[in-house]
Every structure is written in structure tokens, then in C-alpha cells.
């Protein structure tokens, strides 16, 4: 990928999205592998993230929280930038990569001017994925391969192995 320095001029603008609320759109053509921006915000622990979600009266994953490998969270709703408005898509044109506790957004493919930027949130939800839960985390990306949810698939428990028949 490219260097981790912030682009001199952001290659995107924020405006209303058909997917959800605000969205981020390419201001110019963006090349595959190009650094688009860093996801910024206050670094907090999960206890604080849960408290903030409770105070906002919403599920913890319906926030601008971005989980980090070290167990902390970036709260893009506090001290964040416009990268927090990048919407989810099941067939994304961007990806988020963590590097030493920082999250960078890169183009997965060439993106044309005016196209909405998106990445797959793959939200982890440990509870059962009931129909009601899936509705809470419904996806509106409209891509041909849309799964209908922003949730990551549940991990399958290891199935019991049965001996092969001779």
C-alpha cells in the first residue's frame, strides 16, 4: 500500500447518502491502493464505549466506534473526522487497515468521481443473530451480493467429526 501520511487534500466530500444518512463520496478519481484518510477519534476502552452507547440509547454497534486489536476503541463521534461517515457495503470499494493502533482507509479498486465510498463493517455481535437482531443491523447497500446485514457471520463451532466409512 501507499505511505501512512495524510493526503494533502482529502479525495472525498460528505453529503446525504441513499445507503444511510450521511455518506462519503469521491471528489475525484481514486486509484486502487490509494490512502483515502485515517479514521480519527478519541481512544477509549470498551467499558466507556458501552457506557456511551447506553447513554445514547442505542446498540453499541450503532455508533462511530471502531474496534482496535489491543481491545481499545476509536470513538469517531468524539474528536473524529469525516471518515466516520463512510457507510457499510457488502461488496466494498474500500478497506480499513489497522497499523500500530491507527486505522487507515484504502481504496480496494479504482473509484470514480462521485461514487460513494464504503467498506464492510463486519460487526461482531456475540448474541444470537435472530431475525430481530438482523433487522437492527440491516444493510441497505443494494449490491448484488448484499447479505442483508452489517453483521459478521457467526463463528461456527467445530462440528463433531464422524469416522469415515470404508
From TrEMBL:
Subcellular location, principal: cytoplasm
SMART domains listed in its UniProt record: SET
Gene3D superfamilies, per the entry: SET domain
Boundaries of every Post-SET domain copy: 135-151
Subcellular locations according to the entry: Chromosome
Keywords: Chromosome, Methyltransferase, S-adenosyl-L-methionine, Transferase
Database matches in InterPro entries: Post-SET_dom, SET2_Histone-Lys_MeTrsfase, SET_dom, SET_dom_sf
The keyword Methyltransferase is assigned to this record: yes
One Pfam family recorded for the sequence: SET
Record's protein name: SET domain-containing protein-lysine N-methyltransferase
